[in-house]
Amino acid sequence: MAIDCLVLGAGQEVGKSCVVVSIGGKRIMFDCGMHMGYHDHRRYPDFSLISQSGDFTSAITCIIITHFHLDHVGALPYFTEVCGYNGPIYMTYPTKALAPFMLEDYRKVMVDRRGEQELFTSDDIMECMKKVIPVDLKQTVKVDSELQIRAYYAGHVLGAAMFYAKVGESAMVYTGDYNMTPDRHLGAAQIDRLQLDLLITESTYATTVRDSKYAREREFIKAVHKCVAGGGKVLIPTFALGRAQELCIILDDYWERMNLKVPIYFSAGLTIQANVYYKMLIGWTSQKIKSTYATRNAFDFKHVCSFDRSLINAPGPCVLFATPGMISGGFSLEVFKHWAPSEMNLVTLPGYCVAGTVGHKLMSGKPTRIDIDKGTKIDVRCQIHQLSFSPHTDGRGIMDLVRFLSPKHVILVHGEKPKMALLKGKIHSELGIKCYDPANNETVQVPSTQTLKVNVTKPFVKKQFSEISTHTNGKLECKSTEAWDEKKILSLLQIRDERVAEAILLMEKSKKARVMKEDELLPNLGLKEHKIELGYCFPISVQISSTRFQSNASDTTSWLHELFLKVTIEDEFNSVQEYSDHLKIGSFHACLCPKERCPLRNDELKEGKPAIYVCCTWSLNDEKLAQRVIAFMKGLELGIS
Amino acid sequence: MKLTCLSQGKGFYFPPSHVLDICGFKILIDCPIDLSTLTIFSPVPFDYNQCVEAQISSDGDSPNSSSGSFKRRRVEKYLEVSDLVCAEPWYKTALNWKLTDVSLIDVVLISSPMAMLGLPFLTRIKEASAKIYATEAAAKLGCLMMEDLVSMHAEYRQYYGPAESGVPHWMEELEALSPVLREIVLGKENTNLGHWQSMYSGCQRVHEENSDTEGAIYLSSSSFVSAHAMDFDYHSLQGNDVIIFSDFSYLHGGKVERKSVGHGSLDLSCSAYNEREAQMVPLVDSDEGSEEVDKLAFISSCIVNTVEQGGSAMIPIGQLGVILLLVEQISLSLEALNLKIPIYMISSVAEETLAFTSIIPEWVSKQRQHKLFSGEALFGHIDLVKEKKLHLFSGIWSSEFVTAWQEPCIVFSPHWSLRLGPVIHLLRRWHEDPRSLLVLEGGVDAELALLPFKPVAMKVLQCSFLSGIRVNKIQPLLENLQPKLVLFPKDLESLLASENMNSTPLLYYCENETLRVPRLSDYYEADMETDLAFQLKPKRMRERDAAMARLRGKLEIICGKYFLVSTNSSPDASQNQLLHWGSIDPDLLLAALKRKGIEGYLRKDTEIAEENYLVQVEQPAKAVIDISRTRTVISMTDNTLVANILQAIESVVDSI
After folding, report:
1. Per residue in A414-449, pLDDT tens?
2. Cys-Cys with A169: which of A20, A449, A604, B521 at CB 3.0–4.6 Å?
3. Beta-Casp domain spans which residues (chain B) (predicted)?
4. Cα–Cα distance between A213 and A543 in angstroms, integer?
């Protein structure tokens, strides 16, 4: 069976991440995001492609959300409360704690500022979050008897996780957004070396290779300091969570060291409440920040206070964190209108702005005038500083991760089409891994490992591995069969051997199929073998003295012994073994026939000539040997001294 | 697999310890210290004059005492303060260091903070090379406890000076100890002193141990958290689902701690039994929960009554979860009565421990987790500290402590053995005050623990808390887990008898004995590639509902799992002999021969045995088929005829 990947969002673009993966009969939705650049139906993934009937609960086994960014979680309340999905939803503890913030903030912007009809209410967000099952990192969660999932640290934002999913032997990882280098407040992504059929990875910076971000952080601090030193105001538009706290740690730390008194404000949307969460969830930050929990929690910002609308036009320098990021509307836009016309002021922009936002317009060239909407134009004279550090991995990091995991297939999402195409080629040519970059609403199918669970018997395993030990091409260090023990086998992570295992697979009703050695089969079934053999009884001439002709029992033994001596000197038959009443070569068995009328006899004895009858049987695969032995024996004459 | 029970433990503070031998890997499960044995030592600063006086006065009764009568006195009389050992304490662990070769231990698994206090004893041995696994939270709390233990122990060091080299004098003169103390030292069976160790040497050492372990910890933080699938995948080789129950029930007469090893099919609902969770907030299920809530409410009301009447309350409880809940409960009661009584928490790690409890939302109960999601602090102590209702001090010698100190007050401070930490000094202050209250935990020998503080006029409240699972929960748990085998402590066998346990096979283990756990299955599990499965040509059996096929493939081991994969090599021609079984019905055979155009008849022969048959073939050539129960012989004739006869036989007998 194959793994089907339906890309509902973030296919050859950034925004509304949503991939529905069918794996081993299960269907998992990874992320349920919204697109910031659209205000029509395109803002949400096209859920109708999942189920035409609209019964999403039975169509999807579970939803997994990787982190709290809106392009990963923005459509979730809509999908659960409006579309009616009622199944399990998994996310990490921080994501469950922080996602409602982002959703509520976004809902407010949507309704209050743009006057749009809301697509979900505050209650919807609450109800939706109640359905969420929080998971810890590296915790293996059994979604049902077959599907297992596990979260791995992804960096990026607080609580961001990559998710591993496994059904039977089919396994995959969906990375969400991740960062392969630690930053001010988060550690680097970390994952086990898993056996994967498929890796779905983000590719925001597919072709970029970045140097150290500390230099870029210094640039940011320098720009901010220069502005406030000159009496200017700094506007830092951010979303409520993540970047705001990261930049705030940098500034708070700098303010402390430089003993600056210029106020740092958080706007209302960016409540200081968010920091309460950050303080509790400090265990999810980098080792350095984590270790501050006992002395002074790094999210206890000393210099930060909340902002009041009346302060917009207050004189004197200040730094203001305001939502939403990218200046897509709301309070950050309002402040921007006031502050943009003065060249003393500074506006910082994130590394990436979605098309259609004011931030995006500011980034493209150096505009002096921006149209906000019909009739509103703003003269932009302030300085613009673009933050060039990003919580996403760069191209090198993606390659490192793919190389580390070495999955059988890679699917790229969450990136820009031309760059993704380049990365795709690179993964294919450098790593030899099949790679795909589907567009939205396309399905990619990749084959998956499929196995059947069987039981193998101990003697079978023992035989296989003891044979390796006696053959030079095996890698086991056992000296003999006796040295075989479980520890030796276990201690070798991987044993490959070209020797063929011959066995019998037994399938009984309501029992697991068993693989066993051939000789185990009949005892297991409580049955007896029925041998099928060929047989022939023929005379051999003998020369005898008259005394010897009065035959008795002991004579039989001596005739047989004489026969043995004749046979054994022949090179071809020198493996013959002598027993008290028969001779044996392989399965060929010969004895002096005690019967008057043996059914296997069809050559009649020539009248008067003294002879003995030799009765032989042999199994079918010793047919040729038997023919040769019989021919040889027939030509003999015994008793000649 | 082999299980050796090192110790069945003694409740929360001394969890059981086992060594598990799986496929040649030696796994030590938990490495605790039995801190209750500290009671044989005399606390410091010990009033030596008082001791000498007591000795003189008691000897004064019989001025001509010979050594014989001296010994009799030891047996007959109650213990005296002077009987306690005046020396720097040694610590008793579960592991017998003289009998155990620690270099053979491959892995140590730690199930709770309490269970790791003995780890530094292990890691300070050069040959020890085991990897140590614990959850991050357990490791952190355990580390704090070790630091606290070392700092409290330092007081003894200061008092007695540098450690004696070699075995301390009291160990060499065990006969001089009173029988009660001797039994504590040696255990009931009078074994030996192999369990005793001197304290690890200082904080630095402890830190070192922990930095050693941390790397490993991160790797495996899922192993106990998920209550599901250990990281070591022995399952594919072992195939056994075994649960080991280890005793926890000295205090509760029926509460047993659970440890499960190598279980493959744990359901998530079992995570409710997760030890850590139960410890942090013992609200596991409603009836147990409400019982615990009632208990806490009662203790809290006793404490509040005490301070209302001008007394102080001393609470040397070590269970962090109980402390956190009591602090919340007491402060609520105080507030309701509008009492401004300070609550002190005095310990070298008080501040760090409380700070840590507020950043581990993943480990607290569901109710507390809701606080995370609604943006409230997990526990009330954060606000209480801010409101200056709860005061944290690292020790009683700081000037801040002296200036902040007020009585009456409520003090949470280690150590429950009453032999270590600030509790000693505070008991000296309050022991004769009948208004004051001491809250002790059940399982502590109060008589012995309070011996150095006699006469005791203060009230003593002793209560036990739920830790582990109750006997009546075992059956439902096992039903849920469906293990193939359960290992259970022998001395609790009678407890289970009352439960309906017939569905699960049980094995019983005893302390210091090795129990061989048999393989439950003769099989190993393997994964067969579909490619190989498609190559199979299954054949039905004639008289059974079964089928079988010959299989040619390769057996591989990948990451401890068996895989059967297909091979390209062509079959060995010499190995094509079929295997036949069952008996041949001669009439069926004749019919089958006829279909092949072979004419024959059953021949009677006086020479052949009763159950045998001879089939005489006449057409197309002469041949004889000699049939017995287990063998059929065809007389040699031309090859085509033989082949046809064989085909006829194949059609009437099972073969593969």
Report:
1. 999 999 999 999 999 999 999 999 999 999 999 987
2. A449
3. 323-448
4. 106
> Considering CB atoms only, which of B527, B533, B580 is closest to A532?
B580
Residues 6+ apart with CB under 8 A from B169: B87
Highest mean pLDDT among B163-167, B212-216, B631-635: B631-635
- Catalytic, A202? Answer yes
SS3 of chain B: helix, strand, coil, percent, to 5: 40, 20, 40
Torsion angle of C-alpha atoms A133, A135, A140, A144, degrees rounded to 10: 10
Which tokens in the block code for residue B644?
A: 């046809």
CA A386 to chain centre: 36
Q: How far is A149 from chain B (nearest CA, A)?
A: 11
CA-wise closest residue to A278 among A311, A301, A260: A301
User: Rounded CA gap, A399 and A187, in Å?
Assistant: 19
Q: Do B372 and A277 touch (CB under 8 A)?
A: yes
* pTM of the predicted structure, to 2 decimals: 0.77
- Considering only the beta carbons, identify the residue of B372, B554, B642 that sits closest to A500: B554
User: What's the longest Cα–Cα distance across chain B?
Assistant: 123
Give contacts of B267 with chain A, Cβ < 8 Å.
Answer: 142
Residue A494, φ and ψ in degrees, nearest 5 = -145, 125
Question: How does pLDDT run across A315-338, given as a tens digit for each residue?
Answer: 999 999 988 778 877 788 889 999
Highest mean pLDDT among A539-553, B325-339, B607-621: B325-339
At residue B188, the pLDDT reads 65
Nearest C-alpha neighbor of B382 from the set B362, B406, B353, B402: B353
Residue of B nearest to A137 (CA): B222
Q: Which of A202, A217, A246, A520 is catalytic?
A: A202
What is the ipTM, given to two decimal places?
0.76
Closest to B415 measured CA to CA, from B120, B36, B142, B156: B36
For B378, nearest residue in chain A (alpha carbons): A280
Note the pLDDT tens digit of each residue in A275-289.
Answer: 888 889 999 998 888
Chain A residues whose CB is inside 8 A of the B632 CB are 530-533
Residues of chain B found within 8 Å of residue A281, distances taken between Cβ atoms: 359, 361, 372
DSSP codes joined into one string, A525-589: HT--B-EEEEEEEEEEEE---HHHHS--HHHHHHHHHHHHHHHHTSGGGTT-EE-SS-EEETTEE
Q: Give the closest-approach CA distance of B145 to chain A in angstroms.
A: 15
Q: Is the pLDDT of residue B545 over 60?
A: yes
Q: Considering CB atoms only, which of B234, B579, B646 is closest to A518? A: B579
